[in-house]
Design brief:
Elements lengths: L3 H33 L5 H18 L3 H21 L16 H25 L5 H19 L5 H18 L3 H36 L1
């Protein structure tokens, strides 16, 4: 009987985690779809999803992913505030694009930070996949800020981050989350095309106004 109880406890924990993971997945998908449409409500969905994931990732020892989602909670509030400036969800700020030199600087500095954080995690914590965990976290921190500022290329960053994340979550048995990130990759590609179309219209309008 004593041998059965631990297994029962594990199964109960797994069922509970799957339920919360399902809820988190639902709101995470809602966030991306709403963000693609530049709806301010995406940040409300993000707040709910990331609050749940903060606890889930800590439970499976993806420490940086847990810390990242705690950061997301703050960014959800910041993003909502930025996107609603001016009283209209589409006129808070408009889509912008960064030069290649700016992206090179972002990638270089974030890569260095990832290596430093990964080293600390590998030597001083029980984190699983410390360097990959650190890399996805550091780049996601920067990319989330780019989303809040409506930088067009944020979607391309997410494609790479999400592909690496699929491996991390699948390795930890988070099957629903792994599947979610497969959809994330697809949505990120569509999101880039959608925002790029809008950005080009803005550029044309600006050129017309200057003529």
């Amino acid at each position: 009987m004593n041998e059965v109880l631990p297994w029962y406890s594990v199964l109960s924990d797994m069922r509970a985690m799957t339920m919360w993971e399902t809820i988190a997945v639902f709101f995470a998908l809602a966030y991306l779809l709403l963000a693609m449409k530049q709806s301010r409500w995406c940040w409300i969905a993000a707040f709910v999803s990331t609050s749940i994931y903060t606890v889930i990732f800590w439970h499976v020892s993806l420490l940086m992913e847990s810390a990242l989602n705690f950061y997301y909670i703050g960014m959800a509030m910041y993003g909502y505030w930025v996107w609603t400036q001016g009283g209209d969800e589409h006129k808070g700020i408009e889509i912008t694009s960064l030069a290649l030199a700016s992206h090179a600087k972002i990638i270089g500095l974030t890569s260095i930070a990832s290596i430093v954080v990964g080293y600390c995690m590998a030597n001083y914590t029980h984190a699983a996949f410390p360097y990959l965990d650190a890399a996805t976290t550091c780049f996601a921190v920067v990319t989330t800020y780019l989303v809040a500022k409506k930088v067009l290329e944020n979607w391309l960053y997410w494609v790479v981050i999400d592909l690496v994340s699929i491996y991390l979550y699948f390795s930890k048995g988070l099957m629903l989350t792994s599947l979610l990130f497969v959809f994330y990759v697809i949505i990120a590609i569509v999101g880039f095309m959608t925002w790029n179309k809008r950005w080009r219209v803005l550029q044309q309008n600006h050129a017309t106004a200057m003529a």
